[in-house]
Amino acid sequence: MQKAALELVHEELSPLLPNLVAMAAQVHDAIAPRSYADVVAEALKIIAGKLFERFPAERLRQLALGMAQRTSALQRAELGRQLVAGLGKEISIDVFAEPGIAARLDAFAAANVQLVSNVPQRFFDEVGQRVVQGLRTGERAEDLQAEIQDRYQLSQSRARLIARDQVGKLYGELTKARQENLGIESFTWRTSEDERVRPEHEALDGQKFSWDQPPSEGIPGEPINCRCTAEPDVASAFEAL
């Protein structure tokens, strides 16, 4: 979606930049600043309309649902491996019901439609502000084009950050739900054990918590861009297996 947003800006706004620079240079025209700003605003309005015609809400929901389902499959497979490691024997979680999981995936998809939509809209707003500012200060069309590309790179980074954060939160939510569905009442906090682990999470590494009384940081995956995981305390839940 972000790539499509940039392509539309290049198609609709970039060809206008030389004329906009010329308009902004007409300092004797008292209404020039407002007129070129209006041209930029109208172009970005058209661009936004075309983008969201390509990516209507239902398409965005389906994209988000696909991400949620892939995350769910990864988390489920990891839980299966954790059960084998904890019990010392093969266990298939296919035999267990998964109440509420499908509803959680649907809720994730619905909530993320707005988040996904906000990223390109913010990109358009930033492009509009930066182009108008550049026109006011006499920048060349080439400079404005480079600035658009810089805005895009920032927008891409923001989109990746949001995606990682949302996936991490969903992963943690599914971990909690599935473990509780299996009767697992507690977990051990595990970090990624690298230089990116934040100090407050490093301090939690190896500590055991009950799902109904997590630490102040919340559950693993819940804090912004948290990459920690919850190792299930399977022994008490599956002693009979």
Mean pLDDT: 85
Count of helices?
A: 8
Order of helices and strands: HHHHHHEHEEH
Helix amount: 55-70%
Enumerate the spans where pLDDT stays under 50 for 5 or more consecutive residues.
none
Q: What overall geometry do the principal axes of the alpha carbons give?
A: elongated
Beta strand %: under 5%
Structural class: mainly alpha
Number of domains: 1
Description:
It is a single chain. The chain is mostly helical. It has one domain. The chain has eight helices and three strands, in the order ααααααβαββα. The protein has a three-stranded antiparallel β-sheet with strand order 2-1-3. Helix 3 packs antiparallel against helix 5 and helix 4 crosses helix 5. The longest helix is centred in the last third of the chain and has 41 residues. The chain is elongated, with a radius of gyration of 25 Å. The mean pLDDT is 85.
Structure, briefly:
The chain has 241 residues and is mainly α. The protein is 66% helix and 5% strand. It has one domain.
Question: How are the secondary structure elements laid out?
Answer:
Layout: H1 2-12, H2 17-25, H3 32-54, H4 57-87, H5 101-136, H6 141-181, E1 186-190, H7 199-202, E2 208-210, E3 229-232, H8 234-237
